[in-house]
Design brief:
The chain has 427 residues and is an alpha/beta fold. The chain contains 16 helices and 12 strands. The strands form 2 sheets. Strands 1-7-6-5-4-2-3 form a 7-stranded mixed beta sheet, sandwiched between helices. The chain has a 5-stranded mixed beta sheet with strand order 8-9-12-11-10. One of its GO terms (molecular function) is cysteine synthase activity. Belongs to the trans-sulfuration enzymes family.
């Protein structure tokens, strides 16, 4: 069969049962795996053979689901992590260490900003944050001799700024480093960043991929196209011998297609252990099977809600890339022609107090520290997910004090709009 389309991949990629085997991906709920001899297991520890010996590193259920996400993104290798936050950390830490530097878009999720600006800074990794709409000169000026990566979000959470992936990829490659893109909000149904020059894609699978708020998780996918060996001095962890595995050089042993993910599994998962349970991977796969059906509905509902809010007299402003006139509409037309996501950001006239009154008046939508699942939910980021930021950092991230993040579910749009109207009447 020729290359399967995304709707088919959602159901069939990553796992093909043999004769008499389970039609669904089985849950291998086991910490360990049995071998006949120590020599057989030893070959796994030496990375001489592929296989499973301890679920802290790898598990068959997890790997089948990772392979499905890899196929959806068009990558060469992938791994699951226990959360999207773990995926963000691993994706950068796999190629950075104390004394290194990363360029990042400032319009990113508050938890990721805190990870980069506080926690990883304490580890000796420095970050420079640039506006996603910065000039070519400003972007180039952010690089240093010790820069090892560029990071951004396809659609920023919650600012909804669309990353100009091609422009950021050009800048990254001109300085010999990869572009890492968080594709959580768009999903591979609406955007495949590798097609635009990105090198590594990550996801919080907790969101649309799981789709039902059942299981926290993350994923990292490698395009297999970035030439680590062409910049060997920048990436010694991939291009020089790893003494903890008897001197294996990942790029030599596993090629450009497998080096990055193998190192992340063999080193980071071995030492830090942010592995999802096989049960959670199973839940994730259930969500993936309908991802191609749910994303259009999320986008349709979001556009309808954005249009409703845009025309409401009590609403001060609305951000949604699918709206004509939105600052990122042109970029959305380029990178997200079939729809962006199901999230709308807006402000109610009257500021933070009015936002709180509006949210308290909702009945269908839940106030929840979540986004991008089947049920509509709402959040005030400045007092929750981005609470750790000061006013200047909030402004750089595109988060105003009155910003309300509305995540449209897949309910009937008329019921959603009625809920919004009722809540606005109370403001």
């Amino acid at each position: 069969m020729s290359q399967q389309r995304p709707g088919t991949q959602c159901l069939h990629a990553g796992y093909r049962p043999g004769n008499g085997e389970p039609r669904n991906i089985p849950i291998i709920q086991s910490t360990t795996f049995r071998y006949e001899t120590s020599e057989a297991m030893g070959r796994l520890f030496d990375l001489e053979e592929s296989g499973y010996f301890y679920t802290r590193l790898q598990n068959p259920t997890n790997d089948h689901v990772a392979a499905k996400i890899c196929a959806l993104e068009g990558g060469s290798a992938a791994m699951l992590t226990s959360s999207g936050q773990a995926a963000s950390f691993y994706s950068v830490f796999n190629i950075c260490s104390c004394g290194d530097h990363v360029v990042s878009s400032s319009a990113i999720y508050g938890g990721t900003y805190n990870l980069f600006a506080v926690t990883m800074k304490r580890m000796g990794i420095d970050f420079t944050f640039v506006s996603p709409d910065c000039t070519e000169e400003e972007l180039s000026a952010a690089f240093r001799p010790n820069t090892k990566a560029v990071f951004g979000e396809t659609i920023a959470n919650p600012a909804l700024a669309v990353l100009d992936i091609e422009r950021f990829a050009r800048a990254a490659h001109a300085h010999g480093v990869p572009l890492i893109v968080d594709n959580t909000f768009a999903t591979p149904i609406n955007c495949r960043p590798f097609a635009w020059g990105a090198d590594i894609v990550i996801h919080s699978t907790t969101k649309y991929m799981d789709g039902h708020a059942n299981a926290v998780g993350g994923a990292i996918v490698d395009s297999g196209k970035f030439d680590w060996t062409a910049h060997a001095d920048k990436f010694p962890g991939l291009t020089t011998p790893d003494e903890s595995y008897h001197g294996i050089t990942y790029t030599e042993k596993f090629g450009l297609e497998g080096a990055y993910i193998t190192k992340a599994t063999a080193q980071l998962m071995r030492d830090l252990g942010s592995i999802p349970s096989p049960q959670n991977a199973y839940y994730l796969n259930i969500g993936l099977e309908t991802l191609h059906l749910r994303m259009p509905r999320h986008c349709q509902n979001a556009l309808a809600a954005a249009q409703f809010l845009q025309n409401h007299p009590k609403v001060a402003w609305v951000r949604y890339p699918g709206l004509p006139g939105d600052p990122c509409h042109a970029l959305a037309e380029k990178y997200l022609p079939h729809g962006s996501c199901g999230v709308v950001s807006f402000g109610v006239k009257g500021g933070r107090k009015a936002a709180e009154t509006f949210m308290a008046g909702l009945e269908l939508a839940s106030i929840a520290t979540h986004v991008a699942d089947a049920k509509t939910c709402v959040l005030h980021p400045a007092s929750s997910t981005h609470r750790q930021m000061n006013d200047a950092e909030l402004a750089a991230a595109g988060v105003s004090p009155d910003l309300i993040r509305l995540s449209l579910g897949i309910e009937d749009i008329e019921d959603i709009l009625s809920d919004l109207e009722t809540a606005l009447e109370r403001v």
